[in-house]
């Protein structure tokens, strides 16, 4: 892999799960990093990493804050978002405000400060129930059904429009079920770990046969880094290309933790209906063509790494 020249990078949402891991990697690679984060969900940045960055606590919906934070930057990773199915379902207006207003502020700040590239955290959720019989490619007609997914798709189009009109380079990163160490229990993997370690019932919605494409955090960060020098406007899946049933995930976590937990199947709350897709697996063919890389950490190995690092 070609070494990327040292840059000054702004990361919105840089104290969150993906953001903190990306921040650490960029600092290790010799980049100068500025992080904006509201800290409403805590600070996941390691102390050593935190001491080597410029940190600004604030809301991405504050334009002056984003404008000032991005001065002198070469690149913006825009990761700030409202996350967690239950939180998003209960707060659809705030979810869309953070996405739409925050992204507009990032774009306007980039143009004002002559920043030539934005890398935006999108989601596999925009595919909705599309093409469930095949691995999802970037060419599939998307089917966003939730406030979160709709806002993500809107921002993809909004950013692409700015590329067409203003020439700014844009990469929309469609993340597929990223998991890994330092993730909180709004997400399924750490929740199952928490339940397993307490020998409490592991609660699985529905039949447990619904599938997801779990992509390990280190692989996700590696893909992001490899896309940093890509020019133009691109939408790129970051996926492992492997399907795992949710009940298999629960069994794997029981095994890793040596837990005596019972796996219990329960009905999903009605507010989660649009999030409960029966099958989702992504194609990383485009990522591989662009970077000669694809995520390859197996779920089994990833879960072992989480247990080793977190517990």
Question: What labels would you give this structure?
Answer:
single chain; 311 residues; alpha/beta; Rossmann fold; 7-stranded parallel beta sheet
What order do the helices and strands come in, and which of them pair?
Elements: E1 8-12, H1 17-28, E2 32-37, H2 47-50, E3 54-57, H3 63-69, E4 75-78, H4 85-90, H5 92-112, E5 117-123, H6 147-166, E6 169-175, E7 178-179, H7 188-197, E8 202-205, E9 211-212, E10 215-216, H8 217-226, E11 233-238, E12 244-245, H9 246-257, E13 263-266, H10 285-291, H11 299-310
Parallel strand pairs: 1-2, 1-4, 2-3, 4-5, 5-6, 6-11, 7-10, 8-13
Antiparallel strand pairs: 9-12
Helix pairs in contact: 1-8, 3-5, 5-6, 7-9, 9-11
Concise overview:
This protein is of the alpha/beta class and about 300 residues long. The protein has helices spanning about 15-30, 45-50, 65-70, 85-90, 90-110, 145-165, 190-195, 215-225, 245-255, 285-290, 300-310; strands at about 10, 30-35, 55, 75-80, 115-125, 170-175, 180, 200-205, 210, 215, 235-240, 245, 265.
Please tell me about this protein's structure.
This protein is an alpha/beta fold and 311 residues long. The chain has a single domain, classed as Rossmann fold, CATH 3.40.50. The chain has eleven helices and 13 strands. The strands form four sheets. Strands 3-2-1-4-5-6-11 form a seven-stranded parallel beta sheet, with helices on both faces. β5, α6 (147-166) and β6 (169-175) form a beta-alpha-beta unit. α5 (92-112) packs parallel to α6 (147-166). The mean pLDDT is 93.
């Amino acid at each position: 892999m070609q070494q990327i020249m040292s840059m000054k990078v702004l990361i919105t949402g840089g104290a969150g799960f993906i953001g903190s891991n990306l921040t650490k990697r960029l600092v290790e690679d010799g980049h100068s990093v500025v992080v904006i984060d509201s800290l409403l969900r805590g600070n996941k940045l390691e102390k050593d990493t935190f001491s080597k960055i410029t940190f600004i606590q604030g809301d991405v919906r504050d334009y002056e804050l984003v404008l000032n934070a991005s001065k002198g930057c070469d690149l913006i990773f825009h990761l700030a978002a409202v996350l967690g199915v239950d939180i998003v379902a209960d707060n659809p207006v705030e979810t869309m405000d953070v996405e739409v207003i925050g992204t507009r502020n990032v774009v306007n700040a980039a143009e004002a400060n002559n920043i030539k590239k934005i890398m935006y955290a999108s989601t596999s959720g925009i595919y909705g129930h599309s093409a469930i019989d095949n691995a999802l490619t970037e060419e599939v007609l998307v089917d966003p059904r939730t406030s979160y997914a709709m806002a993500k798709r809107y921002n993809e189009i909004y950013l692409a429009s700015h590329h067409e009109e203003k020439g700014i380079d844009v990469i929309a990163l469609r993340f597929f079920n990223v998991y890994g160490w330092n993730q909180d229990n709004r997400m399924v993997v750490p929740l199952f770990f928490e339940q397993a370690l307490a020998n409490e019932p592991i609660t699985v919605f529905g039949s447990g046969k619904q599938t997801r494409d779990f992509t390990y955090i280190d692989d996700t960060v590696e893909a992001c880094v490899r896309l940093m020098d890509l020019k133009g406007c691109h939408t790129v899946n970051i996926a492992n290309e492997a399907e795992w049933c949710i009940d298999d995930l629960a069994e794997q976590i029981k095994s890793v933790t040596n837990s005596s937990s019972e796996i219990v199947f329960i009905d999903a709350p009605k507010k989660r209906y649009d999030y409960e897709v029966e099958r989702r697996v992504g194609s990383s063919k485009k990522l591989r063509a662009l970077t000669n890389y694809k995520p390859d950490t197996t779920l089994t190995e990833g879960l072992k790494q989480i247990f080793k690092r977190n517990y």
